[in-house]
Design goal:
single chain, 311 residues, mainly alpha, 13 helices, 0% strand
Length: 311
């Protein structure tokens, strides 16, 4: 099956250069986008593409989970981290090569372009982040802003020369689709009170992480497991209230994000380099977001526990 999909893609790439082909599979669109290239746009699109990366999501997750809406924070976490595994599964199955190195293509920041090309992980990540937000908030301006940011992230991947048009289009569709799937599963788990139903999302990811045996997969799995544990523990025993005065919110974010990056940086220096170490380190980071941080805020900053869990 893997070989068949790859062969089909190569046949399409070698086929008649129709308008449809030129629009979705060839490098002509990338070259067209790169025709505006200059140092300003290089910097701009490198910045925009960061919105599809892990660090950006962790910052967004911290802000939403600690200061805005825990329920949305959990939904975004389950959607984002399981979606990374879905993307990796499709990439490893189809093995579509990237346009990096193709004649006339200038590729920038290729360290963000690990693995195969189809579908675009950055674009899918952005679609999951912003669609989670506008599906939850349901305000026109939020929806419009989300659509613009998803489009700009997709455009950045073309401008940087690391994806073709079909990669980013499917990345958008897959990201929105996976958000809807995860929202449905999360809402069902909430409605029935069966938190264990979330294992429908988590257990396949455990299997995929073990099978792929890569540092990235173990990192993502670590945070995902922490979010699941946090969903159970925090909602039952801590019941952290996100509402606080503006100065308290600033303190929470400053302390919380500082500790988060300390865990990411200094714990790495203390542990041997291995996939299991990465899993443990990212598990600690996820636990800090969902359990340890909220507990300390309730205990020492006097952020009152909510009367009922918001999850």
């Amino acid at each position: 099956m893997k070989e068949g999909a790859a062969v089909c893609y190569r046949l399409i790439r070698k086929g008649e250069r129709s308008m449809w082909y030129e629009g979705f599979f060839s490098d002509s669109v990338i070259k067209g986008v790169q025709s505006i290239a200059n140092p300003f746009f290089d910097t701009l699109f490198v910045g925009i593409t960061l919105m599809g990366e892990e660090t950006f999501f962790m910052l967004i997750a911290v802000f939403i989970f600690w200061c805005c809406d825990k329920r949305l924070g959990y939904k975004m976490g389950f959607t984002f981290f399981t979606g990374v595994f879905v993307n990796g599964l499709i990439k490893s199955a189809l093995k579509v090569p990237r346009p990096i190195g193709d004649p006339g293509i200038r590729s920038i920041r290729i360290e963000t372009a690990e693995g195969y090309s189809f579908p675009s992980g950055h674009t899918q990540n952005a679609a999951m982040i912003w669609s989670s937000l506008f599906f939850h908030v349901k305000k026109r301006w939020v929806t419009l802003l989300g659509i613009v940011l998803i489009f700009l992230t997709a455009l950045s991947r073309l401008y940087l020369g690391v994806h073709r048009p079909l990669d980013v289009l499917v990345g958008i569709a897959l990201g929105i689709f996976w958000t809807l799937v995860c929202n449905f599963i999360f809402h069902y788990a909430e409605k029935t009170g069966k938190s264990a139903f979330l294992l429908v999302l988590i257990l396949p990811c455990v299997f995929l992480a073990i099978q792929s045996n890569t540092a990235t997969s173990y990192k993502v799995l670590g945070v995902l497991l922490a979010f699941f544990l946090g969903y159970i523990v925090e909602s039952r025993y801590i019941r952290f209230d996100v509402h606080a005065t503006f100065p308290i919110q600033i303190i929470k974010l400053a302390v919380g994000i500082g500790v988060l990056f300390a865990l990411k940086t200094f714990v790495k220096a203390l542990l041997p380099e291995s996939a299991i170490s990465d899993l443990f380190r990212y598990f600690l980071m996820g636990l800090w977001i969902t359990v340890i941080g909220p507990y300390l805020f309730v205990r020492f900053i006097k952020t009152a526990p909510s009367a009922a869990s918001s999850t």
